[in-house]
């Protein structure tokens, strides 16, 4: 390869749409991660998707590795999902009353998941985690939550908290508008640090309701935790009568039908889901044992509700997507993703690039590092994001769409064929040549 930059794709229509959007929405977007703040150019406005491909308003075609940030494990516009949604649409959009579709999706999940006995559907991952935290507090009669630096759990007040300055301190708000007193209920500690967890439990003895961790932390790079550490979290929470919450909004139905709980062979007390469970529609869910779930209203005194919860169209999308997954997709998907990642790793190693590709199932993260493992947020070099920025631009110019930040992971979907992955690999090789053309 030549190590030459490719000319920029046309973003004329996207630019016009973005200019208009800026008049209507803060920053021109309805979710900040879409804004291309840390990469080159204006956000691409997407017109349609099919399989692993998306097309923007200027007609540029991309192989998509963002996949709507994870939900589209079968790719865009999957026929089974589309048919199921179309059928449900004929009967109306929402009733605010129970429907059989809710039972159907719940049955599909609960009969094939050893880790939860009862489930409650909500409308987003944020809502699922917010509700799980309330449930943990209601169940234990304690207030404090331990969360980890580098884990994202949605934008509810208790969870928009970053680490304070000591090893174990009260958290500090990471957003304006979160009361300091709320943040004080959240203790933020580094990942992969047993001592910090032990210290938090001794410093806040009998005050901790729950420890929350992402199934595999995948919102600040891919911070794969060791099995022993996850089991340590299970033991220390049990010893302190605190609950262990697995936030599986990304990993649920992604690593396998039973998500990270099965991956680590650990029984969390509460598990939250989102993304894949709704097949691309707005859905979240949380589940636990019958005993813990009995505390949720109307059975119990922990209140949680939703006008559109269990929405029939969303249920129909989830039923179709999870049915396909259950019929056996993971083995071939995960091995396809692994072959892709291994080929990338072989290439960067042969070139002596400071690059490591971390992966779990069909989730991958290209990190500009020479570390063998990255298990905590502080181990990521912020300077390396400059390299991602160059790679992102080169990839777009070669028809490959990655999330617009080097801290975001990529997803391989079942719709990515070997040919697509071959094409993507070549584009990644070429883009890395540009990134490293002046040395490492
Ligand atoms: N939890 C995790 C692990 C997530 O990755 C996300 C979103 O990316 C959320 C919670 C919040 O989900 P949502 O964006 O659907 O509110």
TrEMBL record:
A Pfam family reported for this protein in Swiss-Prot or TrEMBL: Aminotran_3
Catalytic EC class: isomerase
Keyword tRNA-binding in record: no
Subcellular location: Cytoplasm
Positions bearing N6-(pyridoxal phosphate)lysine: 275
Pathway(s) annotated for this protein in UniProt: Porphyrin-containing compound metabolism; protoporphyrin-IX biosynthesis; 5-aminolevulinate from L-glutamyl-tRNA(Glu): step 2/2
Essential cofactor(s): pyridoxal 5'-phosphate
GO cellular component entries: cytoplasm
Organism domain of life: Bacteria
One GO process term, biological-process aspect: protoporphyrinogen IX biosynthetic process
Reactions it catalyzes: (S)-4-amino-5-oxopentanoate = 5-aminolevulinate
UniProt keyword annotations, A-Z: Cytoplasm, Isomerase, Porphyrin biosynthesis, Pyridoxal phosphate
Enzyme Commission number: 5.4.3.8
Any GO MF annotation of the entry: transaminase activity
CDD domains reported for this sequence: OAT_like (cd00610)
Family according to the record: Belongs to the class-III pyridoxal-phosphate-dependent aminotransferase family. HemL subfamily.
Oligomeric and partner information: Homodimer.
UniProt protein name: Glutamate-1-semialdehyde 2,1-aminomutase
Gene encoding the protein: hemL
